[in-house]
Write a structure and sequence with these properties.
alpha/beta, 7-stranded parallel beta sheet, 11 helices
Length: 335
Amino acid sequence: MTLRTRKLGSQGLHVSAIGLGCMGMSQSYGPADEAESIATLHRAIELGCTFLDTAEVYGAYANEELLGRALKGRRDAVKLATKFGFRIENGRQVGTERDSRPAHIREALEGSLKRLGTDHVDLYYQHRVDPAVPMEDVAGTIGRLVSEGKVRFFGLSEAGAVNIGRAHAVHPVSALQSEYSLWERNLEPDIIPLLKKLGIGLVPFAPLGRGFLAGDVKRAEDYPEGDFRRGDPRYQGANFDANVAAAAAVQEVASAKRVKPAQIALAWVLGKSDGFGIDIVPIPGTKRRKYLDENVAAAALKLDAAEMATLDAALAPGKVSGPRYNERVMSTIDR
């Protein structure tokens, strides 16, 4: 199948209905496999999954460099999203320190353009809100980069309602990238209504609960050192047991429809676009063609109202055990 496109925000950005999160090709989920990652990126283009998500900090720099190599001669076939905002020194991320000073944004963008082998970024996100830099300064800088043609559209990641509003008042925000899935619903009370009001699209990362909703999961301690899930609170101890029980509903709906659990989880996210009346484009991450094919096929899957309600109830916020991040990571989230 070839994916259709979806509008993302009110400023004219159109992307594939499902994107590809590229972080895991370079960090967090086991050793890298460049050959398979590049084959996966090329397969994504064949399938029309052309909304590719990266960031300067993934690697650090390694993921953008990987995409640059993979996209030689193919740049016009994709929409590239990358991010700035964390502090990097000597090729390594400096803890959770952030840097969104206007001069640094320009410096970061020039580095990203060089690594990606392009003269513009289609969607440029502030990776995390920098409490030391007024949001108006960030949005104003991006606005100038848009006028210069180096950036097409402006995005925020894990921003709270106040900062979304402040940014949008200076330069239109086309997309908010934040965690959203069947088992992470924190955006529903306040953020999603605001996105609808302002005409901002939602790009959910981790729409499969970092793999938990895809089934065949292991306890945190059974993942190797360097795998993000080893430190994920929802994969640990009693949280793991409770979440396996809650996620069983995804397996049951998948079995009834004879599809993969991951496809059910993605179909639920896509179905929420109509339910909330906002543009939603999930970016499940993978570095393997097999899982890419499965994820893309989810775009053709429709869940009826009863199935959506069953899943809503089974993984309601009170039924998911454990915080989504440890405290160190949560300290970077704008709430």
